[in-house]
Structures are given as structure tokens and as C-alpha cells.
Design brief:
globular
């Protein structure tokens, strides 16, 4: 008879950080997310997609969600037993919801197209009293390009 080995428990993981609404803050968010996700020992394809999504969402928070004197918040959550990795970026500008409307002559607007291509799902929720949270989900399995889900409630 072989002694039974204890099964490792898989626990929910989370990371939250307030960062300055500057280019430096967006860069730091990407670096922190990369380090955190590598510590979580996720497959490389998940970490790479999540890092790029984080870079795009935080750049948008700095460029389009900036309010002088206000920070943005990066939140990463993962519960391996129930769902995908969730990336949330909360900024202070709820009056500027993200849109996928991009024309070739516009200098900006490609970031959300990249988020939509890399995420399994993404969307935006109001963050009262005046902000918004843009979120994206990346499942650990094979990438399934998912729909854009605007104003969809999600787990917190």
C-alpha cells in the first residue's frame, strides 16, 4: 500500500496596486503585472497575453482616463478552480468609455483592438462616483477570441 500524498491546494490569487496616471506609472504597472504573473507560475502564453493587455489598458488609463491628482488602479485576480485570469484597470474618467472605433487616419485607438484580439472577454463597468473599470479575462487554456462585452458585470 502506498501512502497517499497530500494534494496541493489551489488558492485564489490577487494583486492590487495604485499607480500614478503617468507614462511611468503605466510602465511600472506592466512590469509589476509581469513579475506577479510569473510568480503565479502561469503558462507563458497566458502571461504574455496578460502582460500585453495590461500594457494597453494602463496606457489607455493614462492617456484617456487621466484626472490631475488621481491615480489609476491595477487589479489582477485568479481563481484556478473557477475561472480565468482577470485584469482590471480603474481610472477616474467614467465619462470616456472605451470604444473600438478606429480609422486608419486616427493616431490612436488601436490598443483596444489588440485587447479584443488577445482577451477571451473584455468590457467596461462604471466605477462610482465618476470612474470606470475596464477589464479583460484570459483563460489558461487555448485562446478563444471572445466577444466584446460592454457594461457587463463581472466578479470582484
Amino acid at each position: 500500500m502506498h501512502p497517499s500524498r497530500p494534494q496541493p491546494t489551489i488558492t485564489q490569487r490577487g494583486f492590487t496596486q495604485l499607480l500614478s496616471s503617468t507614462r511611468r506609472g503605466a510602465r511600472l504597472a506592466r512590469l509589476l503585472a509581469t513579475a506577479e504573473l510569473q510568480d503565479w507560475d502561469l503558462p507563458p502564453h497566458v502571461t504574455e497575453r496578460a502582460t500585453q493587455i495590461t500594457a494597453e489598458l494602463t496606457a489607455n488609463a493614462v492617456l484617456h482616463g487621466h484626472v490631475r491628482g488621481r491615480s489609476f488602479r491595477l487589479t489582477l485576480t485568479l481563481d484556478p478552480s473557477t475561472g480565468p485570469l482577470r485584469i482590471e484597470v480603474t481610472d477616474a474618467r467614467g465619462d470616456h468609455p472605451p470604444t473600438l472605433r478606429h480609422t486608419p487616419d486616427e493616431p490612436t485607438g488601436r490598443g483596444l483592438l489588440l485587447v479584443a484580439a488577445l482577451a477571451d472577454r473584455w468590457g467596461c463597468e462604471p466605477y462610482p462616483p465618476g470612474g470606470k473599470t475596464v477589464w479583460a479575462e484570459v483563460s489558461p487554456g487555448p485562446h478563444r477570441h471572445g466577444p466584446v462585452i460592454d457594461q457587463a458585470p463581472g466578479p470582484h
